[in-house]
UniProtKB/TrEMBL annotation, chain B:
InterPro entries named in the record: ABC2_TM
Transmembrane segments: 28-49, 69-88, 109-134, 154-176, 188-208, 214-233
Location within or outside the cell: Membrane
Single GO term (MF): ABC-type transporter activity
Protein name according to UniProt: ABC-2 type transporter transmembrane domain-containing protein
Length: 330, 249
């Protein structure tokens, strides 16, 4: 693997090329219970990859497995260029950083003492400078000497992020980083993650906050014990939902069938459930929309709005998870 | 020193420093470290000072034996309390997972935890013993002083202190890795720290005559037990089990 790293916090080093994570048929069972099964995906260096799923879907167990804390039951994986084996555990952990859901700080120690301990575990040189840079990256330099127990939950989460940045990891695993935070603190964490993304840090983000994933992630995987789907949020929307145009008119059109028939790109129509317009099934919204507008004007209809339907990542997620629920109750 | 496949003393040192910093600010552990040793030192002193000058030899031996036993409770109990907190304490405050996701090896983790319990225990035990010898040597009856200052007895005390602490530490860490509650771990560890005291009791009460050879021999025996205990604890240490309570499938 070519190593050309660019530091998250220090600006030193080089960005590795090729996949940061390769997972192939990975399965983890605890006795009879399956945490996740036959999971395969790849994450590229510099990518922010969102791992979504309901509670108990196997997200945290996947992170722990890729972080070498748990041994996979079957399947293979490569993390930061190294095969996921017991023998590579130390070297993999040296190249990655994991921030668990709870930041896990020593509350009796100060922020700087916490970071200094972890800098020692990573055998880092110039610890003081690294700690300062990491704290500056999360805007906590002025709280370095404060005991962690005096910090709010949001600030503790930021200390956890600073700790994860200390070793300048190739891959940063963030497990529900905004869980339990108020909207303001969550926004701060989002800004920090966004800043890391701009600096090219590879981030593996597990969350069940869909807006968070949509805003931050280049690609997402939706997990529910198995990996249900994977792709860019817009790709997933297209895969799951037919393309439609929403048409709103002041009054119902006299003969909508005649107006919409034969228009380029329009495959069908039905009245909108709201009762103030129509939903048109289209092959290409950009091709269909001008023709629909012209046809409505020609038919003397008062056109109030014409827009392609927008499905959120939440719609995709709910569709897939509901399919799973239905399949299990069948 | 840093070894590619062996132990990293940088990581061990970081862990020891953090542990001692944390213990100093943990009220329960700080109080245990401060009060227990004083109690175990003062109590035998009172017994010895209450002895009349013409106390029969049997009573003198019994009192000296009791004082030796009391002083051995310091290296038995103090590290047991500290070591029992070492893993379950991390788990309770949610710090175990962040530590285990660093490059630290199991051996480094265990040795760091053990040293962080051993160092204060040995320092406190030797300090208490030094104070005990100083006060008894300065103010007790001559026959008491004569018995207390027997070379094999002093040698046994000096040798047994770190070795008994070693047993308590490995027992405490083993229990700490398997329990989910700090108090339960501390109670079980205190109980588990008692068996090696049988040896010191036999020496203290002259059932085994304290000679230099006996002290060294018993010391070697305790050392072997400590090494075996370390090997067992290392074999039991599994990241997966510590985090999930389950064995690897």
């Amino acid at each position: 693997m070519t190593v050309k790293r660019d530091s998250a916090t220090t600006g030193a080093g080089a960005v590795p090329t090729g996949p940061a994570i390769v997972v192939d048929g990975l399965t983890k069972r605890f006795g009879e219970r399956t945490a996740f099964t036959d999971v395969s995906f790849e994450v590229a260096y510099g990518e922010v990859f969102g791992f979504l799923g309901p509670n108990g879907a196997g997200k945290t167990t996947t992170v722990r497995t890729l972080g070498t804390l748990l041994a996979p039951t079957s399947g293979t994986a490569t993390v930061a260029g190294l095969p996921l084996t017991g023998a590579n555990g130390v070297e993999i952990r040296r190249r990655i950083a994991v921030m668990p859901e709870a930041p896990g700080l020593y509350l009796r120690l100060s922020v700087a003492e916490n970071l200094d301990f972890f800098a020692g575990l990573y055998e880092l040189d110039d610890r003081r400078a690294r700690i300062e840079r990491a704290l500056r990256a999360v805007n906590l330099l002025d709280r370095a000497d404060d005991p962690c127990r005096s910090l709010s939950k949001g600030l503790r989460q930021r200390v956890g992020l600073a700790r994860a940045l200390l070793s300048d990891p190739e891959i940063l695993f963030l497990d529900e980083p905004t869980s339990g935070l108020d909207p303001l603190a969550a926004r701060d964490v989002h800004e920090l993650i966004d800043g890391m993304r701009r600096r090219g840090v590879t981030i593996f983000l597990t969350t069940h906050r869909l807006a968070e994933a949509e805003a931050l992630c280049d690609r997402v995987g939706i997990m529910n014990t198995t990996l249900r789907t994977i792709g860019r949020p817009d790709e997933l929307r297209e895969q799951l939902f037919a393309k439609t145009l929403q048409v709103t008119t002041r009054e119902p059109v006299a003969d909508p069938g005649a107006v919409f028939a034969g228009l380029p790109g329009v495959e069908g129509w039905h009245p909108a459930s709201s009762g103030d317009g129509y939903v048109l099934a289209v092959t290409d919204p950009d091709l269909a929309a001008p023709a629909v507008a012209r046809a409505l004007v020609a038919a003397d209809a008062d056109l109030l709005a014409l827009s392609p339907s927008r499905h959120s990542l939440e719609d995709v997620y709910l569709q897939l998870i509901e399919e799973d629920v239905e399949a299990r109750t069948r | 020193m840093n070894a590619k496949n062996g132990l990293s003393w940088i990581r061990v040192r970081a862990l020891v420093r953090k542990e001692i910093n944390d213990y100093r600010r943990n009220r329960f552990i700080a109080v245990t470290m401060a009060i227990l040793p004083v109690v175990f030192m003062v109590s035998p002193m009172i017994t010895l000072f209450k002895l009349p000058a013409d106390a029969p030899a049997s009573k003198l031996d019994a009192s000296v034996g009791l004082s030796a036993l009391y002083l051995m409770l310091v290296p038995a109990f103090v590290p047991a309390v500290v070591a029992s907190y070492s893993v379950v304490g991390e788990r309770e405050q949610g710090t175990l997972e962040p530590v285990l996701t660093t490059p630290i090896r199991a051996g480094e983790f265990l040795i760091g935890k053990a040293l962080a319990a051993l160092l204060p225990a040995v320092v406190i035990s030797y300090t208490m013993y030094g104070v005990f010898l100083g006060v008894v040597g300065g103010f007790a009856h001559e026959n008491v002083v004569h018995d207390i200052f027997e070379a094999p007895r002093i040698l046994a005390q000096l040798l047994f202190t770190p070795l008994i602490a070693g047993w308590s530490i490995w027992a405490g860490i083993a229990i700490s890795t398997r329990t989910g509650d700090v108090r339960v771990a501390q109670q079980l560890s205190t109980l588990a720290s008692l068996p090696p005291l049988a040896i010191t009791t036999l020496v203290g009460f002259d059932v085994i005559k304290p000679t230099v050879t006996v002290a060294v021999g018993l010391g070697l025996g305790l050392l072997v037990i400590d090494i075996l205990a370390w090997r067992v604890v290392s074999a039991l240490f599994r990241r997966e089990r510590l985090l999930t309570g389950a064995k690897a499938a």
